[in-house]
């Protein structure tokens, strides 16, 4: 195959089986999951609870192993955790004894061991300012709100300038107002940095706002990517502008219909591009 035409991230025939109590392999949670993500593309995955979204993200992060299949990023197989991939979990996972700034500096120092203290501080401050936390650099996690803690987690992941950002429902625990503000910020940062992102969400509006493409997973066991939706809306969209886009309602209805009905269908047409019609 011509490597020039390969996507930045390639997932081929991924499957995950857990052993049963008797030690024999159980039914696959998901199987035959194949997709690609282009450099600079933002891809969301949605699907019912338990279909294996977090497992797939953990495999991409290198902290879990697939039973079958391979993942290739930038021409190399993923074989373990790496600073090439930044992960933001559902809960912020900050080190509680460090300030916001020190939490970000910790990752930056690992990524660039040759940086001077001054370089590390300036670089970290820049990313905290980007998520609107320039005023809270010296606060400890216990002094920050849930939304602010999550922003530190996002700044920490972006600051190491990973080749790929993996987000597992990063806004799930936030109130609606904070969630909306951070969604707009993330959209703006991603536009500016052209970061490649894979994100799990349960929120169809969040998926439409943020992504270029949405993967829809059928329910497990034997979950698959049942459908793919291309979000052909302007890249500079915001929450306020989204509702004025005529295509928004078509996409939203399609996603909601899928989650209500089709997520349970087995063998729905793979990778149907609804917007190609
Ligand atoms: N260690 C384990 N042993 C056996 N089964 C497991 C194990 N870890 C996860 N599973 C099962 O794998 C399936 C997929 O879990 P996963 O967390 O990836 O799903 P998910 O789609 O991310 O769910 P949610 O949306 O609820 O976060 C679930 O049915 C879960 O019970």
Short description:
By secondary structure, this protein is α/β, with parallel strands linked by helices.
Major sheet: 6 strands, mixed
| Low-confidence runs of at least 5 consecutive residues | 267-277
Rg: 19 Å
Number of helices: 8
Basic shape: globular
Can you describe this structure?
By secondary structure, the chain is of the alpha/beta class. It has a domain at 3-77 and 207-276: 3-Layer(aba) Sandwich (Rossmann fold), CATH 3.40.50. The chain contains 8 helices and 10 strands. The strands form 2 sheets. Strands 6-7-8-3-9-10 form a 6-stranded mixed β-sheet, sandwiched between helices. A 4-stranded antiparallel β-sheet has the order 2-1-4-5, covered by helices on one side. α2 (100-111) crosses α3 (117-130), α2 runs parallel beside α4 (146-159) and α3 (117-130) packs across α4. The longest helix has 18 residues, at 176-193. The two termini are 29 Å apart. Residues 267-277 have low confidence and may be disordered. The structure holds adenosine-5'-triphosphate (ATP). Residues 18, 29, 49-55, 220 line the site of adenosine-5'-triphosphate. Belongs to the ABC transporter superfamily. Residues 9-244 form the ABC transporter domain. Keywords: ATP-binding, Cell membrane, Membrane, Nucleotide-binding, Transport. One of its GO terms (molecular function) is ATP binding. It comes from Orrella dioscoreae.
Helix and strand arrangement:
Elements: E1 9-16, E2 30-37, E3 42-47, H1 53-61, E4 68-73, E5 76-77, E6 85-88, H2 100-111, H3 117-130, H4 146-159, E7 164-168, H5 176-193, E8 196-200, H6 204-210, E9 213-217, E10 225-230, H7 239-242, H8 246-260
Parallel strand pairs: 3-8, 3-9, 6-7, 7-8
Antiparallel strand pairs: 1-2, 1-4, 4-5, 9-10
Helix pairs in contact: 2-3, 2-4, 3-4
Bound molecules: adenosine-5'-triphosphate (ATP).
């Amino acid at each position: 195959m011509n490597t020039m035409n390969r996507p930045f991230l390639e997932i081929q025939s991924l499957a995950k089986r857990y052993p049963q109590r008797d030690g024999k392999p159980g039914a696959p949670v998901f199987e035959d999951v194949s997709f690609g993500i282009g450099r600079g593309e933002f891809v969301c995955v949605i699907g019912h609870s338990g279909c294996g979204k977090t497992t797939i993200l953990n495999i991409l992060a290198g902290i879990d192993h697939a039973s079958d299949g391979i993942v290739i990023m930038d021409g190399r197989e993923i074989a373990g955790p790496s600073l090439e991939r930044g992960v933001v979990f559902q809960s912020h996972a900050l080190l509680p004894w460090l300030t916001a700034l020190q939490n970000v500096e910790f990752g930056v120092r690992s990524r660039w061991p040759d940086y001077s203290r001054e370089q590390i501080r300036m670089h970290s401050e820049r990313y905290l300012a980007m998520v609107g936390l320039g005023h809270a650099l010296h606060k400890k996690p216990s002094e920050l709100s849930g939304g602010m803690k999550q922003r530190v987690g996002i700044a920490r992941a972006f600051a190491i300038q990973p080749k790929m950002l993996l987000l597992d429902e990063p806004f799930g625990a936030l109130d609606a107002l904070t969630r909306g503000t951070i969604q707009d910020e993330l959209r703006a940062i991603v536009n500016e940095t052209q970061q490649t992102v894979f994100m799990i969400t349960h929120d169809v509006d969040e998926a439409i706002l943020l992504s270029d493409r949405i993967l829809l997973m059928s329910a497990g066991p034997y979950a698959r990517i049942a459908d793919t939706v291309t979000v052909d809306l302007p890249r500079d969209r915001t929450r306020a502008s989204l509702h004025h886009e005529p295509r928004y309602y078509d996409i939203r209805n399609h996603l909601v219909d899928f989650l209500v009905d089709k997520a349970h269908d087995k063998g729905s047409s793979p990778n149907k591009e609804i917007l190609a019609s």
